[in-house]
Amino acid sequence: MEEQVHIRSRNKPDVQGDAHPKALLRTIVEDGDYLRPLEHQHILKADQFDAQTLLQLFRLAAKYESNPDRFSTPLQGKILISAFYEPSTRTRLSFESAWHRLGGDIMSITDRSTTGIAKGESLSDVGEMFNNYADCVVLRDTREESLYEMRDTLRIPIINAGNGMDEHPTQAMADIYTIFKWRPELIKKDLPEDQRIRVGIIGVPDKMRTVRSLLKIFSVFSHAFEAVYLFNDEKDGNDDESLQDFKESGLNIIQAGSSFDELVPTLDVVYINTIAWTGDDFLTFGKSFQLDNNTPFKENAIVLHPLARGEELSTELDHTPFNWYFSQARGAVFVRMALLTCLVHRKGRVLDVV
Ligand code: CP
Tell me: domain 16-167+331-349, CATH 2.30.30.40, correct? Predict the structure, then answer.
């Protein structure tokens, strides 16, 4: 009997994680004033945003996602420099897709050795040149510091698209946007206690920029979480001290070690990531964890993964209702569209046509 339930729940839709973004439009009352301070801002860390700014960004993202054909050119005449000095499938292409969808033009650098950096040019001088050529920069660099070295001379906004092990703020925005599309009621500050969710994160926040940024953005909405369990199979685990700030924000973080099998039937969201970038290479953590068709997920649970995937996430789950990781990657385009629109001061063009 149990086996029948198991099979039925895993064979549901062909399109996974396709919640209607319109639910967010209904849940979040529009107030564009919260987006105005984003004009010309650098985006460096996930905790630079307050809840209202994020919610208004998600509302704009949901507007884009609900009406993709209605907003074709708010960035017409604007130029993006897309500088990615570390491999990327999703972040680079989704930022570029977002900018193209909004009608802007792009200059892309995928190898720093094709710039004056190879001749010893400072990042500060490169930044000064970027000021002359574009309206916004998206940077992924293996070095944490590069972002800040460029920021100091830039007069156009720079967005952190992953700086070494440090942070990946727009990934975290896309992650929680996905969670809010799945359960829009989580946005409400007066959420009843019995509707708060339990999240399990397989990952190491001390070493993974996606997990660190995710916890920062969870902290902004700590009311939505009953508990956030951290799982890993490392001997030393996560540094308790580095979790202190999250705990002080009201996030109930519990270090759960390797007790994933025991807790997974109680988890509403399972987030998994196993890669940590270390300069020009990466380390893999959590090798003992594997999500597949035999994982005893709670019914209606969702699985998130920033991707790229490795062996930890079986393709068996791709065609099950647990797969929200593809929706997560798809939604990132709309979140980035919303953010880019606000940074380069073209929000007015969008709000006017709605
Ligand atoms: N999520 C993410 O950062 O993926 P990429 O490395 O492909 O950009």
Answer: no
pTM over 0.85: yes
Closest by Cα among 200, 196, 198 to 223: 196
pLDDT tens digits along 233-260: 876 667 788 899 999 999 999 999 989 9
Q: Are 227 and 245 in contact (CB under 8 A)?
A: no
Residues with CB under 6 A from ligand 1: 88-91, 162, 168, 171, 306-308
Q: Check if the beta carbon of residue 231 is closer than 8 Å to that of residue 291.
A: no
User: Does CATH place domain 170-329 in 3.40.50.1970?
Assistant: no
**Where do you find CATH 3.40.50.1370 in the chain?**
16-167+331-349, 170-329
d(CA 308, ligand 1 centre) in Å: 6
- Ligand 1 pocket check: which of 88, 167, 209, 330 to mutate, most ligand atoms within 8 Å of Cβ? 88
329-343 pLDDT tens trace: 999 999 999 999 999
**Which residue of 91, 167, 210 sits with most ligand 1 atoms within 8 Å of its CB, as the best mutation to test the pocket?**
91
What average pLDDT is seen over the chain? Answer: 91
312: left (phi over 0), alpha (psi -120 to 50) or beta: alpha
Q: Using one digit for the tens of pLDDT, what is the confidence trace for 96-125?
A: 999 999 999 999 999 999 999 999 999 999
Q: Looking at ligand 1, which residue's alpha carbon is closest to its atom 4?
A: 90
- Measured between alpha carbons, how far is 81 from 96 in angstroms, rounded to an integer? 9
